[in-house]
Amino acid sequence: MKFTVLTLFPEHVQAGLGASVIGKALERGILELSCINIRDFAGNKHNQVDDYPYGGGAGMVMQPGPILRAYESIQPRPKRVVYLTPQGKTFDQEMAFSLAREESLVFLCGHYEGVDERIIDRIVTDEVSIGDYILTGGEMAAMVMIDAIGRLVDGVLSNSSSYENESFHQGLLEYPQYTRPAAFEGQEVPEVLLSGHHGNIDRWRREQALVRTLRKRPDLLEKAELTEKDREFIRN
Ligand code: 6GU
Fold first, then answer.
1. Which sequence spans correspond to the domains of the chain?
2. Which residue owns the Cα nearest ligand 1 atom 11?
3. Are 7 and 37 a contacting pair, CB within 8 Å?
4. Where in the numbering of this chain does the tRNA methyltransferase TRMD/TRM10-type domain appear (predicted)?
5. Cys staple from 127: which of 88, 102, 139, 204, with CB 3.0 to 4.6 Å?
6. At the top level of CATH, which class does the domain 166-235 belong to?
7. Is 214 annotated as ligand-binding?
8. ipTM > 0.95?
């Protein structure tokens, strides 16, 4: 899968995604990342890419010309262009799965007070927010999305860390995890996990995932994939 990021801070994005699982997948060529500096397409002596807003008001607006020229430098022309903005649809796991099916994605990162509306009309297919708060620019949001989408691409995660088994995959929070030692300063690992009885362990984990979701994020239960047994457990 190929990610192209249109940004004023290409090194920031490159560095932010260079480590860990996504960094490895980039090295192995399973994922591709190309960061295009919008400023390279300024086309004026001072490399200016923003200007005052028509009608007045605070801040600066990114001009449409440099962004369009940066976009037009992408070959082949992409199908979907994601603009990172607090005004967008809120990113979630379902959207991550949907976007992970694309062969390539372009992310447009805005700065200052945003981009000229005409660039949104012209090239943007998806406006996406990563949550209800304001960031100084779209770069960190693009990195969040690329991390979440990239890990869903075949071959990025090892078999042992595959997302297929994640409880969040079914819309639930994860069950609690423990490793050695079995007793840590008087705190013991739940006995069922030491029992070797996989049927009991699976049931305990499922119940823990349900209890946690019910306590911490009851809103998630509405969309979760629950069995009749799950529903019965929640009722009791
Ligand atoms: Cl996608 N961009 C900016 N600038 N701020 C945000 C955001 C995006 N999502 C939440 N806050």
1. 2-150, 166-235
2. 134
3. yes
4. 1-223
5. 88
6. mainly alpha
7. no
8. no
